[in-house]
Amino acid sequence: MKRWRRPPLQHPLVPAFERAVESICTALTPGSKRHYNMTVRNFLVYLAADHPEVTRLEQLCRDPHILGWMSRMRSQTPSLATVTCIGRLIALRSIFSELAWTSQYVELARLVRDEDIPRTPQSLPRPLTAEQDQLLQQEFLRRNDLGGNVFLLLRHTGMRIGECADLSFDCLRSIGPDQWTIHVPLGKLKTERMVPIDAAASILVQRLRFFRFLDPLPPDGRLLARPGSKVALVVQLRDYLHLVCHALGLSTSIVPHQFRHTYATEMLRSGVSFPVLMKLLGHKNPDMTMRYVDVALTDLQREFQLARSKPKHLAPQPKASSVIQRTGFDGLIDSLLATQHALVMFRRSLPSGDSRSRLDRLSNRLTKILAEIRKLRTT
Questions:
Q1: pTM of the full predicted structure?
Q2: How many distinct structural domains can be found in the chain?
Q3: Which strand (E) or helix (H) includes residue 194?
Q4: Closest to 185 in 3D by CA, of 202, 170, 200, 204
Q5: Which residue, among 252, 277, 134, 296, has the nearest Cα to 196 in the 3D structure?
Q6: Which domain holds residue 71?
Q7: CATH, residue 224
Q8: Is 78 helix (H, G, I), strand (E, B) or coil?
Q9: CA distances, 15 to each of 21, 128, 135 (Å)
Q10: Do 38 and 142 fall into the same domain?
């Protein structure tokens, strides 16, 4: 049966949008490129139907062109899923940013704003519980097969499953005695990174290399053999995890991305700073990193007690000065300033309460007294 194809889109803005999509999708998958092209088609079809007078990029305005397109999406029947609307808005925003750069018309980058993108109805997958994490790691070690070693590597590096599928055969790099890193290729956010690993994780890579040697598929430079496409490999790994969870009596709704969340939470609790954690995960936005981290009540209590035991914000108490004391109005002002400083330092060491509030009021009175004495000195 002959496959039906849509007729090519006829619009004066098609060439500019196509060039922008080509530039954005240079390092992205064919599926991502299809998503961008579908967004362009949807927007330009709306533009041609409702605003045929728009034929140049300079004519595009937020109101009514962008707001009208958003309103059209919300009023569709059946209604579009929130995730679909989010994907289209993010894609169009990226295209406008690219067009603003290439056409030197900066207003295009402001047509789609952050507040236009709705929140997802569901949060990202949460980290595994301690029990789930322990049971799964023990089972993966016991099986010691291809799938088990892949998921152990995901757990100990925080990689996305798609990034793991793209790992090169020589991804393991030695940077010193008993020190290794894994080179993670260009991923979802068009970033590549080096992730430090320990000896146990380096052994996982060696095992995966061994499985690659055993695979009948010819070498293609990748660490994991692909039975057909990258999508087929990812589906195969997801099915493997589903079967392992079922065998252990765990929830079969556990997904590979939860290993990434578990890694992020573990790193933060181990003392890794937030900027370093962003680098390890390959994030550009700290808000995204925060969504990956599970900060429990026990973490808050531990950090609070640590801050109370070592209050770095408190200034040291003033030492006795060896400077010759002045006399007259100047000496009086010096004495009041020293008293006020000592009062403020003492007040900061007190917990919030009535005493701290009263000392704050006394400090304010000293400020007024100092102002009056300075006036007397002037006269």
A1: 0.55
A2: 3
A3: strand 193-197
A4: 170
A5: 277
A6: 14-116
A7: 1.10.443.10
A8: coil
A9: 10, 47, 54
A10: no
